[in-house]
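We keep the chain:
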Amino acid sequence: MKNKNLRHALLISSVLFSVLFSSCATNVGNPNVNDFGKLMEVEKKVSTKNDIYDSFGQPHDVNYIANDDSMWTYYHTKMTMSGATFVPFIGLVAGGNNADTSVMDFYFDKNDVYQKLSRSNSTKYVNQWVGIAKGVKELATDEKHVRVAAEMEKLNLPFDEKVAKSVKDIGIVAEQHK
């Protein structure tokens, strides 16, 4: 009986050990979103898309708006496991992640000159099961990488598919930017 209890204790402790050490923060996206030094290098009505690309790299999304104006979007998300995830049994239902997301939008005129910047930060809890369901849908329907590829080709800039697809499911935590 002691042997069986010891095995159970070892199993439970190894699972807890694995969970605790796999719960480090996960960073997704471009950390330059939060680099105010880089933002200071950008000049309104002077900097171009090429300048923004040089400072911040490839955007995560590109959208065209009225009058051939456009918007480049950059994301950065830091995910940490919520405390409920570590509670036995409850963690199976209520477990998930806390997502701290920063979104930065650069707006350009039809001549590809930078006009304004919009930044937002949000913190959101994402239940693991809801996250999986939304993630599957997002991965199947997301077209950000296609828009970015077309923009990079138009500007004759390098396109990195890995960077483009790295935020493919960002809509789970940044729903306002779908």
In short: The two ends are 56 Å apart (CA to CA). Residues 24-177 form one domain.
